[in-house]
Amino acid sequence: MYDHDKNNTLRHYLKRKAASSTSKNPARVACDFDSLLDVVEIFDVEKMRAIISTHDKKSNLHRNHQRYLDYLADTAGFLSLATVPVTIFEKLDELLLQFPNFSEVVAYYREQMALARMTDRAVFVANPLLIAGPPGVGKTAFCHALSKIVATHFELISLSGMTAGFVIGGMSSNWSEGKPGRVVEALARGHKANPLIVMDEIDKTGGDKRYDPLGPLYQLLERETSKNFVDEGLEVPTNCSHIVWVGTANEIDLIAEPIVSRFTVIDVKRPTPQQMENVLRSIYSRIRRNYAWGSQFSEDLSPAIISKIIDSGLEPRLLQRELVSACGKAVLRNSERNLISNGQHEIKPDDFRPRQVGKPEIKMGFV
Fold first, then answer.
1. Domain AAA+ ATPase: where (predicted)?
2. What's the rounded Cα separation, in Å, for the pair 178 and 245?
3. Helix H or strand E encompassing 39
């Protein structure tokens, strides 16, 4: 389990600044700094400014650092740490209802959160986790939902087809298109020292082995070495040691063993028919909540439509799209026939007609 070293430099700086402001404006209410969230130094702003001052404004390195100082705004390079809420176990129970096939993953994070809650500040930390399983079972959606319940920044980095490490570790500013990678960008723009970063489809990288696209992960997934990670687009160390890492994959056999060994690996299966009912209800509830027109539909799906959807064998990640489409069909059907009951629309089995998934068949031959 990762821990973190407190750095109160920013807190002391803000105290002095607030004291000065309060003396100039006595009516201003002083900040309660004892309740200030933990902050840690992630970017060395002084080094970044030094590089700006010693490089021409037209140089990539100058522009990269100026852009990142703009991202960091008034943080002085110190970012806050997301904490584990006291209601975390109730929230994990709710998460399990939405993703019933992720029971082992939820159990893993229960253990990690229980340890985090034992510390004074209950900082969100977790060892790297690799979620393996067939496509479409909800791996990415689960991670996004997890980031919300701990209120941290979520970053999805798709590795499918990636052939070089610059997406993760940046490209040297000596190149005309050289810029920092997605990892340090997530820190600077998300303003969280411990974002949840998902390396999606980690088994689908390609390219020349001389330019290993996963090369930066050998350093980033280790606590000690990630404290001083040098992105090629910035050329100064960044503290990446508080990042919470998740990888997703369909086939872990395609991933280099030294990378796999840095993760805890959990295999997630497709939902069973019984679990799919919970998944469906969760997705439908989310549609009603997230769309402006959602409240005009019935609160639950009928057994008939649930049965038809389960029998279709559609992957969970495609269900929302097809349910939204079914909602549209229900509105058209009801408007044509004036069959709205209780002022709400209800999806019927005939409204659920999934579109063909995949590439259309190409017929060859002479006419």
1. 125-272
2. 25
3. strand 39-41
The residue among 250, 267, 284 that closes a domain is: 267
Structural domains counted in the chain: 2
DSSP E strand boundaries for 187-325: 196-200, 229-230, 237-238, 244-249, 264-267
- The two tokens of residue 342 are 């209780």
- How buried is residue 11: exposed, middle or buried, by Cβ count under 10 Å (0-12/13-18/19+)? middle
- Token readout for 31 is 């900040």
Residues found in the chain = 367
Query: Could you tell me the two tokens for 356?
Result: 């063909």
Distances (CA, A) of 58 to 54, 64, 66, 245, 328: 12, 10, 11, 35, 52
User: Tokens in use for 2?
Assistant: 């990762």
Q: How far is CA 317 from CA 140, 195, 221, 288, 313, in A?
A: 9, 24, 28, 17, 12
Strands 196-200 and 229-230, by their bridges, are unpaired
Determine the residue type at 214.
L
The reply to whether 50 falls in a domain is no
Pick from 190, 184, 105, 192: nearest CA to 146 = 105
Residue 46 placed within a domain: no
Instruction: Give the pLDDT confidence of 274-322 residue by residue, as tens digits.
Output: 899 988 998 999 899 999 999 999 999 999 999 999 999 888 888 889 9
Residue 171 pLDDT class (50, 70, 90 cuts): confident
Domain residue limits at 313: 273-351
Any domain includes 73:
no
Phi, psi angle pair for 83, to nearest 5°: -115, 160
- DSSP state for residue 102 in the 8-state scheme: G
Do residues 323 and 196 both lie within one domain? no
Cβ count within 10 A of residue 231: 27
CA atoms of 68 and 64, how far apart (whole Å): 6
Q: ∠ at Cα 245 (196, 202), nearest 5°? A: 115
Question: Final residue of a domain: which of 267, 298, 331?
Answer: 267
More confident residue, 3 or 308: 308
- Compute the C-alpha angle 289/134/242, nearest 5°: 70
CA distance 26 to 323: 58
pTM: 0.80
Distance CA 313, CA 317 (A): 12
